[in-house]
Amino acid sequence: MHPGCAISQVYLCRTPVDFRKGMSGLSVLVEQELTLNPFAQALFVFVNRSRNKIKILYWHRNGFCLWMKRLEAEKFAWISSSHDPQDEAHHSISMQDLTRLLEGYNIWQNKPHKTLRFTSVS
Fold first, then answer.
1. Across the strands, what pairs with 44?
2. What is the model's pTM?
3. pLDDT band at residue 111 using 50, 70 and 90 as cut-offs
4. 34, 41, 60, 88: which is deepest, by most CB within 10 A?
């Protein structure tokens, strides 16, 4: 993303989008289908049907910016209905989770370490 651009939220569009859409089409989608403000200090993340491409739309000072990543092999992990029972059109994640997602991690299958139960220390 643009250096110095203040980002307070990251929103994933739950359903895959047509990647022929550019800045204008995606900004309308943010406003009308996700019911979010496309001019907010936020990143709006979209995936294609094959889940091998991600587009990220954001507003910076005086215009929209569009960032894209294409995987040459494998697919991006993506949110499903079972992960978000509210079943909204979008899902909010942290910047740290976005970084993990772009690196190829499935951020919804993170599991904590096993709980250990001891009866004594010696």
1. 11, 57
2. 0.83
3. low
4. 34
